[in-house]
Amino acid sequence: MSPDSLTEIGNSLIQHGNLNSRIYIMKMGEDDPSNLISETEKLASENGYGKIFGKIPEVKAGYFRDAGYTEEAFVPEFFRGRENAVFLSRFLSDERKISKTWEKEDEILRKCLERRSKKRENKALPEGLTVKVAGEEDILSLCRHFAAVFETYPFPVDDPDFIRKSIDEGTVYLIVKRGDEIIAASSAEADYDYKNAEMTDFAVSPAARGMGIAGYLLREMEKIMKERGIILFYTIARSLEAPMNYTFAGAGYSYAGRLLNNTNICGSFESMNVWYKKI
Q: According to the lineage, what is the superkingdom (predicted)?
């Protein structure tokens, strides 16, 4: 299935498509919220999508609530360290509203919150491994790595043109190598206007898991983003993927909420936990 596409409605950036059967309002512009709501609902209806969600400034959240949207997550001081973000969703199918795994998701979250209160040792990168910021010479091997780790993914990270464009726009990809082979990768997708960055695309090869590499990548990305003026980090992590949630909880991130049946990743729709950290 083709990856979802990026487009604009007015001056708002959205992603939509059949892969995730959703519309994602990634960055809301200064347009009339009523027009954005109307146009996204029209697009969703035409394509039979199951969900619309977005990161909405709190001052504009009322327009969406009046249109039937519900709050799934809340991140304080998300925009420029001043304005709060509300993750608002509208479910367009009954099936999309139901989680069959909520008990397991809640159990993982409970353990994460317990771990957050405990001091955690930061592991060094294991001997024999190296880390670097991915450059042009790494793009093809990085795409092959993402394709090997993810059966499906909400963004086309196996497409060299997509990776190249995102790097040009300020996203930082970190890669961990054993010799010439990439065994782990991640990215920090920065919004320099709003001074926040999504810590995402963590992809560790099965043979390299359990060595603390994801935590190491997270710390390195935070250092780079701080140097670039970013003051808030967040992630949208698979709620059933315990190690990744443990990584963010252990790094001092706060839980913001859960996005129900939000993302087609590794072959099926999964709910996603939102975590954030203000510096």
A: Archaea
Polymer length in residues for the chain: 279
5-97 CATH choice from 3.30.390.30, 3.30.540.10, 3.40.50.620, 3.40.630.30: 3.40.630.30
**CATH, range 102-278:** 3.40.630.30
**Residue intervals in the chain for CATH 3.40.630.30:** 5-97, 102-278
Structure tokens at 235: 């992630």
Mind listing the pLDDT tens digit for each residue in 179-188?
999 999 999 9
Q: Which two tokens stand for residue 88?
A: 């608002």
Q: Which residues pair with 200 in a beta bridge?
A: 187
CA–CA dist 232, 100 (Å, integer): 32
Q: How many CA atoms lie within 13 A of 196 on its CB side?
A: 25
- In tens, the pLDDT along 239-264 reads 999 999 999 999 999 999 999 999 99
Burial class (CB in 10 A: 0-12, 13-18, 19+), 24: buried
pLDDT in tens, 85-109: 999 999 999 999 999 999 999 999 9
Q: What residues contact residue 271 under an 8 Å CB cut-off, 6+ apart?
A: 99, 101, 102, 105, 238, 239, 240, 258, 259, 260, 261, 262
In this prediction, residue 239 carries a pLDDT of 97
Answer whether 272's CB lies under 8 Å from 236's CB.
Answer: yes
pLDDT band (50, 70, 90) for residue 117: confident
